[in-house]
Design a protein that fits this description.
The protein is an alpha+beta fold and 420 residues long. It folds into 3 domains: 96 residues; 55 residues, no CATH class; 257 residues, paralog of FGE (formylglycine-generating enzyme). It contains 12 helices and 12 strands.
């Protein structure tokens, strides 16, 4: 729910334009007038963020996930604002900037950026825009670029593909529709597990978490704290995981799934290479057609999974606490042939974390930006309730810890016939 100040700021920006943020005095007067004497502390902190130029830095930033922490620290250091209030103020500022109606200049810039990245719809819209402005040379260029992009996509879809074999330790997950999240009656449920309908295409998923042997053979190092060739690799960041995906794809002659530009990672969804599963794919595969808290039923023992048995789920009897990850595949797989979806090590997913929408979704892949990436499955040191199929974890993508690893996914490549 939006705060009262959030609502007032949206109103002022809608009436006066985003330029009002460059006039802290006027913005302050309007806020006090609209708030009728209330929200004095919140307004004071917000105006200080404008005086510090935080809004201009956020507007220019290509990496808000990097810019935000720096601005929060700036408010703490230069204005003596506590960390909590600084975080609230910068988060509010970012929100009202994102929610504003874009100016024509901003819309044009946004179109240009998308067009330059190869989005043919944006290229076509840019052609129309320049045509309406009677800039015919630019209009022709973008129309021709959009047409070429469409032809390239058509040729790619009709040209026979040389399909590389899928490794034996991958399972074909047939697409379908399921209810993601958990019911309000589920013990240990969190507020971020709102149930909603999700439809997914088919994909392949690794039977096992990536092992230390596989990781070291390709990357040349083993960062894991608990050493063992067939133990899952751990102490890897999200960036380490996507780098491994691309390296293995290149080694096998597959088109890498990720375009990595320092800390900015784009997913090419037409690629044939290895990738991390989306959060929805992970839960769908973990459940294996079930809707119970675990893919084996309403509870789970340490004879079926590696977790901290001192803290079992609900009324389950206490079990072992092994205090270490185990060899991948040590327990019985779920009904779809996947091992260790509950426990052993947490697993990175592709998605930035955000609250679920209750609306039905098809092939969701999370928001375009955020501060934390999703992790799933729980680990050898997790409480029993954190192993549930619907349980959601999150961490900053640079985070490394001794109970966090990953498993790989591959796309299902359609077999196309060339046109006669």
């Amino acid at each position: 729910m939006k705060s009262d100040l959030h609502v007032l700021l949206n109103r002022i920006i809608k009436e006066r334009g985003i330029i009002i943020l460059d006039k802290p005095g006027q913005c302050k007067a309007l806020l006090h007038d609209y708030a009728k004497g209330a929200l004095k502390r919140e307004i004071h902190l917000f105006i200080q963020s404008l005086e510090a130029g935080c809004h201009r830095e956020l507007l220019r930033s290509e990496k808000p996930e990097v810019t935000k922490p720096r601005l929060i620290q700036k408010l703490q250091d230069n204005y003596g604002i506590t960390q909590t209030f600084a975080e609230e103020t910068i988060t509010l500022l970012e929100a009202v900037i994102q929610e504003r109606e874009l100016t024509p200049e901003e819309k044009t810039l946004q179109l240009i950026k998308a067009a330059q990245k190869g989005n043919y719809r944006s290229q076509y819209e840019l052609g129309l825009l320049f045509k309406n402005q009677k800039k015919y040379e630019l209009s022709t260029y973008w129309f021709e670029t959009a047409a070429k992009q469409c032809m390239d996509l058509y040729e790619a879809s009709t040209t026979p593909k040389t399909l590389l074999p899928v490794p034996d330790d991958f399972v074909h997950i047939t697409g379908g529709t399921f209810i993601m999240g958990s019911p309000s009656s589920e013990w240990g449920r969190k507020d971020n597990e709102t149930q909603h309908k999700v439809t997914l295409n088919s994909f392949f998923l690794g039977k096992y978490e990536v092992t230390q042997e596989a990781y070291q053979a390709l990357i040349g190092v083993n960062p894991s704290q608990f050493k063992g060739a067939n133990l899952p690799v751990e102490s890897v960041s999200w960036f380490d995981a996507v780098t491994y995906c691309n390296a293995r794809s290149a080694q096998e002659g597959r088109i890498p799934a990720y375009i990595i530009e320092e800390e900015k990672v784009h997913w090419n969804q037409n690629a044939t290479g290895y990738r991390l599963p989306t959060e929805a794919e992970w839960e769908y595969a973990c459940r294996g057609g079930t809707q119970t808290p675990f893919n084996i039923g309403n509870n789970i023992t340490t004879e079926r999974s590696n977790y901290n048995g001192r803290y079992p789920y609900n009324t389950m009897t206490k079990g072992a606490f092994r205090q270490t990850p185990l060899t991948v595949g040590s327990f019985v797989p779920n009904s779809w042939g996947l091992y260790d979806m509950h426990g052993n090590v947490w697993e990175w997913c592709w998605d930035w974390y955000e609250a679920y929408s209750p609306e039905p979704q098809t092939n969701p892949a999370g928001p375009d930006r955020g501060s934390d990436r999703v992790i799933r499955g729980g680990s050898w040191c997790s409480l029993g309730q954190n192993l549930r199929s619907a349980n959601r974890g999150l961490n900053i993508p640079s985070y490394r810890v001794f109970d966090l690893g990953f498993r790989l996914s591959l796309p299902v490549i359609p077999i196309c016939s060339a046109a006669p």
